[in-house]
Predict the 3D structure of the following.
Amino acid sequence: MTIASDYQNDVADYWNAERNPVNLRLGEVSGLYHHHYGIGEVDWSVLETSDDARREEAVIAELHRLENAQARLLLSHLGDIRPEHRLLDAGSGRGGTGFMAHAAFGCRVDGVSISRSQVDFANDQAAKAGVSDRVRFHFRNMLDTGFESGVFRAIWNNESTMYVVLDDLFAEHSRLLEHGGRYVTITGCYNDVYGLPSRAVSTINAHYVCDIHPRSGYFRAMASNRLVPVSVIDLTSRTIPYWELRQKSSVATGIESTFLDAYRDGGFQYLLIAADRV
Ligand code: GPP
Ligand code: MG
């Protein structure tokens, strides 16, 4: 059974209905549709374009460029990936990171999502790009994928860990990864050195029907599941410019100031964690 709880059903309902211009308009720029945020310096000159329609287009292209940069950074931490390796995108959305992985490494990529609309959308994109034999999306649960043990060289979660219990997730990843394989996540987490999460974190949880984990929860669950961190990068300062531009854009959704407040007060962090399966 792919959807195993009322909560997962609520999550699937959200993503089956989701049509935010901030995702669809950005996706139309290059045909890569992402469900994650961006990193890197903003080219603020996009706001100076005098023609309204052209300015809007330039801002959207700039946000898309920053989201691509985020996915590229994640992929650069997967290690030495060769065409014979297999990769898994856990919580694959409309497929953006998976298509970039296939383009970068030439290997087979599988993605799983509990949203049927997302799976269908991503498989349509694969067909359009003529890569359906190498990039496949499945209506499956990342906690119980049904794939054979030890077949993946690398697995990632690009902003999808906040929908699951980390111990359950990492137990499944640990089963699926070959010995010496690599796991990478980019995620938002609350800084539990300060104690419990702020109201901003609760607002983000309510907005996306998710449950943001404390930072320490990642390392605890990895240690329990044979995943040894090899890189931890705090991307908070590198994602703030993306949110500042997004806030000024026509595709803002209303959650922008909440992210900016949460990141600026130090209670919430945008992290990349890479770990080896030992
Ligand atoms: C959504 O991406 C990402 C999440 C719901 C995960 C939450 C991430 C955190 C860092 C807390 P999206 O591209 O669908 O969102 P939006 O529609 O806001 O662009
Ligand atoms: Mg988005």
